[in-house]
């Protein structure tokens, strides 16, 4: 599998789980209607786990432009690949949004609340204050990317050079460090914690593709009582996560 295809698939999986749990909780006549915030945060965490675990051995399992930019800014990923990764992640987010709509099509028809439907595809603040909303997204994404950077660079430090060792040689065999695909589990738990602790003000996008791709799907898909896609707010879950990722990478390099 090509890494760009992997990022499309991984991000689509994220949105199928994440957008799907929101649809289950907020749409009318579903089994999970009214399940609440705890259910939503767990659904998103499982989405992160499955998305990263499934494709991490192929592409690194970024499934998030902020993670891609943060890794590149920290010197752990090639900047030349960033645009294609971001494009793939956005496409994956769009496709995931379409799948959620297909799965809940009858329930979309049974729900008239326009804001509820938009919440399945994109984030929005409880109190619309753009500087405060931006700061919340910066903080949440900083926590995420800072954790990802240390998971990505797991290993021992060379006493002389101070560089992280990716492997050591034992009896002529190179032995690597790190959790491999299982690094998806601690990352998912970090996302769960961010949702529980910092998700209240804005819905914790912390991922530009998670918001932009499905928001485009919302604008295109044909369903009744759709309402506007709130493009006036759409820049916040793009700019905030990127700034948070850059700050995390800067601190990582400083330390």
Considering the chains and any ligands shown, give keywords for the structure.
10 helices, two-stranded antiparallel sheet, mainly alpha, Glycerol uptake facilitator protein, single chain, 255 residues
What does the secondary structure layout of this molecule look like, with pairings?
Elements: H1 3-26, H2 37-59, H3 65-73, H4 82-103, H5 105-109, H6 114-121, H7 130-152, E1 156-157, E2 164-165, E3 167-170, E4 173-176, H8 184-198, H9 208-220, H10 236-254
Task: Describe the protein's architecture and organization.
- There is one protein chain.
- The protein is mainly α.
- It has a single domain (3-254), classed as Glycerol uptake facilitator protein, CATH 1.20.1080.
- The protein is 63% helix and 5% strand.
- It has ten helices and four strands; from the N terminus they run αααααααββββααα.
- The strands form two sheets. The chain has a two-stranded antiparallel ribbon with strand order 1-2. Strands 3-4 form a two-stranded antiparallel sheet.
- Helix 3 (65-73) runs antiparallel to helix 4 (82-103) and helix 9 (208-220) runs antiparallel to helix 10.
- The two termini are 36 Å apart.
Structural class, by secondary structure, is: mainly alpha
Q: How many domains make up the coordinates?
A: 1
Give average pLDDT, whole number: 91
Under CATH at level 1, the class stands as: Mainly Alpha
Just name the CATH architecture: Up-down Bundle
Q: State the strand order across the main sheet.
A: 1-2
CATH fold type = Glycerol uptake facilitator protein
Give the count of helical stretches.
10
* SS strand fraction: under 5%
Weakly predicted, low-confidence segments = none
Per DSSP E runs of 2 or more residues, the count of β-strands stands at 4
Principal-axes geometry comes out as globular
Please give the alpha-carbon distance between the first and last residues. 36 Å
Keywords: Membrane, Transmembrane, Transmembrane helix, Transport
Protein name: MIP family channel protein
GO molecular function, one term: glycerol channel activity
Organism: Halorubrum tebenquichense DSM 14210
